[in-house]
Amino acid sequence: xxxxxxxxxxxxxxxAAIKNEDSYGYRIIKDMKPYLELSESxxxxxxxxxxxxxxxxxxxxxHEGRLRKYYHITPAGVQRIEEFKTDWEEIRSIxxxxxxxxx
Amino acid sequence: xxxxxxxxxxxxxxxAAIKNEDSYGYRIIKDMKPYLELSESxxxxxxxxxxxxxxxxxxxxxHEGRLRKYYHITPAGVQRIEEFKTDWEEIRSIxxxxxxxxx
DNA sequence: GCGACATACATCGTAACACGAGGTAATAAC
DNA sequence: GTTATTACCTCGTGTTACGATGTATGTCGC
Lengths: 103, 103
Known about the structure:
The structure is a homodimer. In chain A, about 60% of the residues lie in helices and about 15% in strands. By secondary structure, chain A is an alpha+beta fold. A 3-stranded antiparallel sheet of chain A has the order 1-3-2. The first copy, chain A, binds a DNA duplex through helix 1, helix 3 and strand 3.
């Protein structure tokens, strides 16, 4: 899919991936893969950004000798998803503008 | 609307705005305004980009003492719109991923 | 005639961003 | 002991949207 098209979806997608259950980087990529592929470097950038924006919180857990950083969504993160749903109506309107057949 | 979300829509939107009838910068902005607002600097950047990508062609016309650069869509531009329609199915799938309610 | 506004184009600098390439380190399988 | 998998991170680069700014003409009110 077109990179530019992905941009607006990525942040919200990551938030959606942890909304129902706390998750960590490696697993988020796997969960999202059927819908939207993203590289590790991209994901970790996004996670850092969302953390700075306080849309998620981190707690590190040791799991079989390796570190895992679990991410938990905050109310601000949930609100971000809600805002996306509002934007969606606008996107659908734009879609109709693009696909309309006049001539 | 979220800037990132606009990004993937902008190019295709501009192509759609000239698809049925050749148009020029100033008018494109006005036509698109109800759907998607964009500044002049953004539009002219987009037009230049689409021209370089040979998705549209320019012909300059003098109109009441002022220059007007009319843009005409090429087959590659039409194809770009068709590709967007394909991408749309993916976007809808992502939307469902984001808005699903599991818990 | 002159100021304000609309029409119509263009450029520059900046900040945000996705991603490839590369790095570290532990466990598991063979 | 080498390869694969899990799990994290950073740096550099190219693309991009947009505000600020500039140029120039036409129109309308006063």
